[in-house]
Design brief:
With 408 residues, the protein is an alpha/beta fold. It has helices at residues 4-12, 164-172, 211-221, 236-248, 268-275, 308-326, 378-382, and strands at residues 20-24, 37-38, 48-49, 53-56, 70-78, 92-96, 108-111, 129-132, 142-143, 154-156, 177-181, 185-191, 195-196, 207-208, 225-232, 253-257, 276-282, 285-286, 290-296, 299-304, 336-341, 345-346, 351-361, 364-369, 386-390, 396-397, 402-407. Strand 19 (290-296) and strand 20 (299-304) form a beta hairpin. The structure holds adenosine monophosphate and magnesium ion (MG).
Length: 408
């Protein structure tokens, strides 16, 4: 049977990066950059104060001490947003607010709380003079021009997944539009006569379709777009008619759950075989052995297992990498770390993905399983913060042994 790595490689070889488009900065969150971003100007753009206080010439303060207070004349008042024209001479200072440009001549700021001007009621005019009792070092509380980055520096690279803080940085640089890769479109369907949507009442033998909701959220969180097709019945016709909808929707991938096992009503595999190609339908892993890959009328198709934990694991192991590739992401969005097993773990020799809670014990990351590992037990996944990877061929992992874990 195919190993997880072979299966993933086979799947990935069928996908290419999507085209790019230009979107507004506002619409660019969770998208992937299709261009390098270079700074059009220095950041900060001008020397400015990091504190509310008084801009001074630091040399003036060299004699200041508790026993010899220093008094400077205040010759200007510089709020944020203003453009000071004064040049400080020896013995002079300027009241200055956080973010306001430093006046010429000044090279340091003494915070207001370190001076005698400590009435901080809003709206008070600047005092005539200010007194303080300590030495102020050159550069103290000054954010010099170009401290964070210089004009021309590459700040974000092609293939970078744009996070909220990245949008803030792009705005700082005056970048209102960015070129990003088109969002991959993923058709999503569930299959099974037992399934009802979350708002339908349950009659005997029926359950709510939970995979659609979890998988759609996973798709969105990977920077792709879900085209929801609905629930197919366990008949050839119903499966075919939903898959046909995916063709009209012009999607990059068709993703289904359930119906790919060896049950008498598992039609999905057969529909794929007779309307396209079935590349493989089993992988040597746990949970999630019945996992199908192929194409339906030329469209890539991945059939995840039906059990909710298996569907989730199948997504993380096979679908997320596809979406990352399609959307041009260069770095993996899930982090893999080494953890120590806090308990002995039995495995069956298949590559296993087990739900675990990670704890920090004196600086060492340890992992304990979240109860029984049945692939229908979604609660065990809800409680987990990682999937432990037990390699193929391993039947027992002793306490204290290191294994890899995918952080969720
Ligand atoms: P199957 O692969 O069709 O044999 O389904 C395996 C198990 O997963 C069965 O217990 C199904 O009821 C369950 N299952 C299948 N699809 C879903 C779904 N969309 N949501 C929740 N459970 C499902
Ligand atoms: Mg079924």
């Amino acid at each position: 049977m195919l190993s997880v790595t072979e299966a993933r490689e086979r799947i990935l070889s069928h996908f290419q990066i999507t085209a790019s488009e230009v979107v507004s900065l506002t619409a660019s969150a969770n998208r992937v950059l299709a261009m390098d971003i270079a700074a059009a100007h220095d950041l900060p753009l001008f020397n400015n104060s990091a504190m509310d206080g008084f801009a001074i010439r630091s040399v003036d303060s060299s004699t200041a001490a508790s026993a010899s207070p220093l008094t400077l004349r205040v010759v200007a008042d510089i709020p944020a947003g203003s453009a000071p024209t004064v040049t400080l001479a020896s013995g002079q200072s300027a009241r200055i607010m956080t973010g306001a440009p430093l006046p010429a001549g000044a090279d340091a700021v003494i915070p207001v709380e370190d001076t005698d001007f400590n009435d901080r009621t809003a709206g008070l005019p600047a005092p005539q003079q200010v007194t303080f009792t300590r030495v102020v070092k050159a550069g103290e509380n000054v954010r010099p021009r170009g401290m964070d980055l210089h004009s021309g520096d590459i700040v974000l690279q092609k293939g970078h997944f744009l996070k909220p803080q990245d949008l803030g940085l792009l705005a700082m640089l005056g970048i209102a539009h960015v070129q990003v890769y088109k969002k991959p479109r993923i058709a999503l369907l569930s299959t099974g006569d037992e399934l009802r949507t979350v708002d339908e009442p349950l009659t005997a033998g029926k359950i709510h379709d939970s995979n659609s909701y979890a998988l759609a959220a996973l798709i969105e969180s990977s920077g792709a777009q879900t085209v929801y097709l609905g629930i197919a019945k366990d008949t050839r016709e119903s499966v075919e008619s939903l898959l046909q909808k995916a063709i009209h929707e012009n999607v990059d991938l068709i993703l289904s759950s359930a119906g790919v096992s060896v049950g008498a009503f598992d039609f999905v595999k057969e529909v794929i075989e007779s309307n396209g190609k079935l590349n493989f339908w089993r992988v040597n892993m746990r949970p999630g052995k019945p996992l199908a890959f192929g194409e339906y009328h030329g469209r890539p198709f991945i059939g995840l297992p039906g059990n909710p934990v298996s569907a989730f694991v199948g997504f993380e192991v096979f679908v997320r990498p596809v979406l990352e590739k399609l959307s041009g992401q260069l770095s993996r969005s899930r982090r893999i770390v080494k953890v120590r097993c806090a308990e002995e773990i039995e495995s069956d020799g298949r590559e296993s993905y087990l739900r675990a809670i990670i704890r920090d014990e004196n600086g060492i990351r340890t992992a304990a399983l979240t109860g029984h590992q049945g692939s229908g037990n979604l609660l065990s996944l809800v409680q987990a913060d990682a999937l432990l990877i037990i390699p193929a061929g391993v039947k027992c992992v002793p306490v204290g042994q290191e294994v890899e874990a995918i952080l969720l």
